TrEMBL record, chains A, B:
Entry keywords, A to Z: Amino-acid biosynthesis, Branched-chain amino acid biosynthesis, Isoleucine biosynthesis, Transferase
Presence of the UniProt keyword rRNA-binding in the record: no
Positions of transmembrane segments: none
Protein name: Citramalate synthase
Family assignment from sequence similarity: Belongs to the alpha-IPM synthase/homocitrate synthase family.
Pyruvate carboxyltransferase domain segment(s): 6-272
Domain of life: Bacteria
Keyword flag Transferase: yes
EC number: 2.3.3.21
Amino acid sequence: MTKTRLYLYDTTLRDGQQTQGVQFSTAEKVQIAQALDELGVDYIEGGWPGANPTDSAFFDAAPKTAARLTAFGMTKRVGRSAENDNVLAAVMNAGTKSVCLVGKSHDYHVTQALGITLEENVENVHASVAHIVAQGREALFDAEHFFDGYRDNPRYTVLVCKAALEAGARWVVLCDTNGGALPGEVSRVVSEVIAAGLPGDRLGIHTHNDTENAVACSLAAVDAGVRQIQGTLNGLGERCGNANLTALIPTLLLKEPYVSQFDIGVSVEALAGLTRVSRMLDEILNRVPSKQAAYVGASAFAHKAGLHASAILKDPSTYEHVDPATVGNARIIPMSNQAGQSNLRKRLTEAGLSVESGDPALGRILDRIKQREAEGYSYDTAQASFELLARDELGQLPAFFEVKRYKVTVERRKNKYDKMVSLSEAVVVVKVDGEKKLSVSESLDEDGSDRGPVNALAKALAKDLGQYSRILDDMHLVDFKVRITQGGTEAVTRVIIDSEDGQGRRWSTVGVSANIVDASFEALLDAIQWKLVRDCRPRAVVAE
Amino acid sequence: MTKTRLYLYDTTLRDGQQTQGVQFSTAEKVQIAQALDELGVDYIEGGWPGANPTDSAFFDAAPKTAARLTAFGMTKRVGRSAENDNVLAAVMNAGTKSVCLVGKSHDYHVTQALGITLEENVENVHASVAHIVAQGREALFDAEHFFDGYRDNPRYTVLVCKAALEAGARWVVLCDTNGGALPGEVSRVVSEVIAAGLPGDRLGIHTHNDTENAVACSLAAVDAGVRQIQGTLNGLGERCGNANLTALIPTLLLKEPYVSQFDIGVSVEALAGLTRVSRMLDEILNRVPSKQAAYVGASAFAHKAGLHASAILKDPSTYEHVDPATVGNARIIPMSNQAGQSNLRKRLTEAGLSVESGDPALGRILDRIKQREAEGYSYDTAQASFELLARDELGQLPAFFEVKRYKVTVERRKNKYDKMVSLSEAVVVVKVDGEKKLSVSESLDEDGSDRGPVNALAKALAKDLGQYSRILDDMHLVDFKVRITQGGTEAVTRVIIDSEDGQGRRWSTVGVSANIVDASFEALLDAIQWKLVRDCRPRAVVAE
C-alpha cells in the first residue's frame, strides 16, 4: 500500500518566539534551524523579515537546509498594490523559496480590526498570493481565526481560502489562532470544508494549546484530510503554546493508524535524536526541561509505582507504550518511599554497584534516602549524590580528603575610580594524604569580573588537593539551580549542581542547607567526589 | 432540555502522588482534599490505605467533604476469599463510603504478571466487588490496561468489566494505564463496548498523557458515552501525568458542546477559584507553576505579539477564547522587543503610572528594558522591578536611602562541641536622611539555626533605615529563585525574589550579577524600595 505524504511545518523561530520570556539571538536561530533540518521537518518558518532586527539578520545568516526556509509576513494592506506594499516587500527581500502570509478569514476581524470591506479583504489575499507566485516563490496562506470565523460565517471563510488557492497558494493553513477549537469541532469543520471544495492535500492545520488539545486537534485535522501540520518544538508559542511537534512526530512515526497511513520527512534514525533536540532548545532558553513532557521528558519513562517497577523489570511493554530508545530517551526507576528494593537494585546497577538481593545494606540505603528526603534532599535527578550515598553505605566510598573548615567573604564597595565593584574571597582548609592544606582563591576571572562566592569556593577547594588536583582539571560547572523547599518544619535551600568533564560526562549533585553558600558547597563536594571515584584508584583507605 | 450529569473523579492524592519527586505529607493531603471539595469534584481518591504510612494516616485524619472520599486498592489475590485478603482488608478498614479496586483486564497481564488463569481473574474481580457491595459500600472497578487488552482480546476485557458490573460495581473505569491510546481509538473502542452491552452511564475513563492526548482522550470517551472522568489537578501523575482536570473542568463548564449537554458538580463561582487552587498545589510541591498551562498558566492570557496586543486592548475576544476572569486568571501584556508602546502604557497603567501617548519617556523606558534584558534581566514576572525602572525614568522614584557598601562573611567550622556549624554575618552601610548608618546582623534565627548570607544581608539592610524601618516590619521573603542565564557573552546569575507583606500584597523583583549574593542584594533592594513607594509619602527629594 502506498502511503500518503504528510508535511511538517515548523514555526519555532516565529510563533515559538511569541512565548512569554523568549527572544532568540540570530546565532540561536541558526542553531535551531540546523537541528530542525537534521530532524527532517519539511518547512522552517524563520521569522518575519522587517518586523524585528533579529528576524531580518537571521535570513541574512540563514544556513543551507534541505527543509524549505520560509519567510512569514502579512497580506498587503488596502489602497496599495502588492508590489508597492513596503511590509510585503521586506518579506520578499529575504529571498526565501517559500513565503507564508497571514490574512484575515473571520468577517468580524475584517470589518472591525482592519476596518475594510469583506470584498477588499478577499482582493488583498488574492493579490498578495498572486504576487508571491509571480515572483517564482511558493506561497502559503495562513487563514487567521479560521475556526472562529467558520462558526460565524462559514461561507466567507471558505471564500477567502478559495481566493488564496485560486491565486496559486500551495497551502492554505486553517489557523485556530485563539486556541479555542476542540478536536470534535476541528474534525467536523475540516470535513465540511473539504466537502465544500477545499482540497485536503493543499490544506494545513495550525493549532494552539489553550485547552490542552493542540496535539489532538492536529491529529483530528489529519484524520479528516489535511496534509500539513504546523507546530513548534517543545510546544513553544503564544499564550499556552502551539501544537507540540516533539509530541506529534513520534506519534506519527511510531503509532497506528498514522504509521501505516503516512510518510513524513523524519526518519526512524533521526527520531532517536528527538530527546537531544528538545533538551538543546531548553538549554538555549535556559529552561528547566519539563519532566512530564510526552516522549522526551525525564519522567516520561519513569516508573515510580512499586507494582509497575517490578513488572517493567520483567517486560518493559507492560507499562510502556513505546520503547524509550526510539526517541532517544531512557527508562528511570526513581527512588521514593513507594519504591521497593527491586527499584533500588536496578538503580544501583546503573551506577555500577552490584548488590545481592536481600543484602541488609539495601534497607539501610532506603532508610537513609527517606531521612534525607524528609530534610529536603531530592535524589530523583541527583543521581551522582545518590551513588555516593549508596557507596558510603556499602563501604565503597574512598576517603579522598576531609574539609576542616572554610570561610567566604563577599564585599561590595567603591573602588579607587569611585565605581561600585564586588569581590569574593574563599579560604578552604582540607586534610589530604595526612597533610593539612590551606588554599585561598578569589572570584575574579581573567578579565577581572567577579564570578561570585561559589566560584571562589570551587576554585579554592580544587586548588590543592594533592594527588587529586590533576584529575579535576577538565571538570566544570554547567548549571546551578536553587529552590527554597521544606526541610522538616523549616524552609531550606536546595542546590542542584550539574557538572561536566572533558570526557563528555555530565552529572548532578545536591546540597541542602538554610545557607545557600553551604548548600552549594555540599553539592560541589559531591560533584568532586563523584569525579574522583570515576577517575582515580586511590591508595586511600575505605571510609567507615 | 435536561442536561446529563457528568461525574468528576479526582486522583491527585493517589495517582498524582506517583509523579516523580512528589510525596505529600498527611497535612498536605488534607489541604488538597479540602480545596478539591470546595471546587466541587464528585470523588476524591485519597490513597491506598495499607500501602504506605502517609496514605493510612490520611484516612484517619480525613476532613469531612461533600465529595465522596474513596479508598484505592487492588482486587483480592487468588487462593483466598475476599474476606480473608489482608491487603483488601486494610483498604476496607479506611471506612470510606466508596472503594475503588484496580484489577487486570488484559489477558497478557493476567497470565504473565499474575500467573493465574483468565477464569481465576474474572472470579477475583467478581468476588472483590461483591465483597465491597456486601459491606454496604459503593464499589468502583479500575479496568487496568483496558485499551491495550481490547487490542489483543476484546472479548476478555468486556467479560471482566461485565463481571464487575454484575457484582454490583457502580462504575467500571476504562483505564489507559500505559497512556498509549490515541483519541480516535478511544472513541471507537468506547462506542464498541457500549454497543456490546456495557452501559455508558456506569463507565468512567482514566487516561495518561504519554502522547499529550490525555485531555482529548477523556473528551473523546465522553463524546462516545462514558459519564465519569478520572484525572488530577495540574495533570500530576505517573510518567507524563494523568488527564488534567485543571484543563478539563473549564472546557466542560464553558465550552460547547459540553456546556449545553452536561451538568458537572463544579459551579461557575467555584471555577473562578481554579487558578488559585492550581497555584496552591504548586506551592505545596514547591514547583514553579507552568506558565503555559491551559486556562491557569501565567502566560495563558499573555499577548506578546504586537498586533495581538493592540487588538486585545480594543476587544479581548479578538485573541481570547474565554474571559480570563472566569477561571480566576488575568490578562498580561508582557514587555519584549516585539511589544509596542501601547503594551507599555497598559502595563504602566496597571502599575498606577499614567503616561500620555507620545511621551518620549516611553521610548526611553523601552530602550532601558531592552538593554537590561540583554544583560540577563527578565521583567515578564518581576513586575515590581519593572515599575521601579519606569518610575526612575519618569522621575517618580523617591530617593529613600543610598547603600554605600556591604560585606558578608560565610563561615563553616567546628564549634566547641566539635560539631560542624555555619554562620553568616553582614555589615551594611547606608546613607539615609543625610546620616551615615552602619548596621550588622548575623544569620542565626531565634532557635540558633543559620539562615544564610542573604538572610543576614536582608536583616542588616532593614535594621536601621531611619524613618523607613517601621514600614518594613510586616514584609518578608516568600520565595527565592535562582537561574544561571546569559548576560551578554557571560553566564550570570538571575535571582527573583517574591516578597509579601501584612496587607496581603505579593510582589516580585529581579537582580542579576555573576555573584549570587550581589544579585540577591539587588533584588532585595528593589523589594524594599517597591514597598516604600507603596507605603510612605516621604519628604525625600525625587531622584534624578
